[in-house]
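Write out a record, fold above all:
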Amino acid sequence: MTRNCFVSLAGLIAGSLILSAAPVRAQDIDLGDLLILPNRVATPAGEVGASIDVVGRDEIERSGVTTLSEALELLPGVTIAANGPRGSQASVFVRGAASRYVVVLVDGIEINDPTGPQVQLDFGRFGLGDVERIELLKGSQSVLYGGDAVAGVINIVTRRAGGEGVSFAINGEAGAFGTVAGAATLGYRTERGDIALTVQGERADGFSAAEEEAGNTEADGFRNVTVTANGSYQVNDFIEVFASLRRGHAVSDFDESFPAIADDPGGQYHGTTSDLAARIGTTFRLFDGMLENTVTVSHYDVHRDIVDGFPRWFEGTRDRLEYQGTLSLSERFRVVFGGDVQRETAEGGSAFGVTPQTSADIRGLYIMGLFEPFDGLNLTLGGRIDDHSTFGTFETVRGTASYQIAATGTTLRASAGTGFRAPSLYELFDSFAGNPALQPEESLSLDAGIEQSFWGGRARLGVTWFLVDVTNAIDYSFATFAYVQTSGESRRQGVEVTGAVDLTDWMALSGAYTYTETEDPNGARLLRVPRHDATLQLRLMPMDNLTLAVTARGVVDTLDLAGPLDDYLLVNALATYRISDNAEVYVRGVNLLDDSYQTLDGYGTSDRAFYAGFRVRG
């Protein structure tokens, strides 16, 4: 497909988005829903000034996505770059900012890997069998979530027990590339407490991580088992205790990347990752509930083995103690405040020896006020100070505003914030490339938007302008063979358009379009950030028990190291048949046009593929 032809198609998608009022982004958010992530305290969605997107369990199942990467790509401003099939390393870009600028939480536990060159999550191995909801809070959020929250925060909420008594959910799938996957959740709930356990597993023979059209044929497989548990107990009217745990073990095959991307010799290259995330805490209320206090302790550890021409291993930990207080002074004025203490460690080794363990401590204090001066207007203003054991103190601020006009179904939002990314342990202390003199990267983010409902609430349209500037960036210098601080500013700015419309009782249209312009300190475009990204989804219910969904995603004008990547149009479809109120079967197809495309230069993506599965709950 030529670029001109594709640009016309992408324009048609974007145009239909606007004309039909379209989003995947907001259709799971009702203005009456309570959101905790934006302000760390329950806030009605219509009163949130920050930009947030939510993908719920229903949306996950209705869209046919099976991985965290696929679910995030439903949202505006999010793209993924992966070096091969399921299980291969994958990075997320939020409003043009790479994974190292995004904090990822599972039930409040940060799971960014502290052992890599940068502290970030590998999104390639994260399935959705234990996921109830995904929340993406955009913009610099360091005031509430500390370092690395430059472009945003992803919070993953795991599945909990259903209604009172015993509940369960089971799903399974099989299909192309030798894929077999399944998950089972068992829960129990009483008036005072709940507990849930989820086990999920997957194996796939995969396809070549190195692009098959370049003559590579050796398949790269993936195996994964994850166990998740969570629970809470209401001791009395004023005290609650809660805990969560997630244990994962994954093995991923990969290909040669140097001196060229190609099949690995003998098909033996693979990486193993085992990690554990655990958290326990309590919430207690004082002064007739006016002051709510939450204390949590969390732990994350990860072990990685890489087997290739240069075998090596890495281990890292993150321990964190947090306190948060919420003081409700009136119905229109609340204060959220708190502090946290964190230690990260990392070590590694190879045939050349063991790298001694390195560590960094960081302590932070924050405070934020939530105001409602008059009906419809909600404001927040907050600040934070962090003290890092290497570079010292750093201050950040954030403010948001939301104004609802009930008579017209209009919501106006705006936010501004500063953030920072602390240098990783590798960037600071690696024996070859480390630089202990590094200072934090700094960020400024701005966004402003409008959301409008039409047609008695059956149609919704949202438009948001955004900007993310990063200064004092850390980069690797081939002149000094070490990490250095770079001067100048990198900029990411653009527009997100989202919407949804219920055309009839049995037909709905939704979608999202993002335009992103980027520039590094030298005036060049940033890599792997598409200029145009559009998604359009049509859902049909031709009969009571049958639901059909077709999703088209177009990506235009992406630059990588070797030059521009080909534009592509990816079309997926899902057909779900409900056998009963508690059971359904489905068939889904991926890349129905069999388009050959890449999200990372030199690495392959799925050909046309089909899968079938079932879901049972009770």
In short: Helices lie at 3-20, 57-63, 68-72, 142-145, 425-429. Residues 1-29 have pLDDT under 50 and may be disordered. The first helix runs from residue 3 to 20. The radius of gyration is 24 Å.
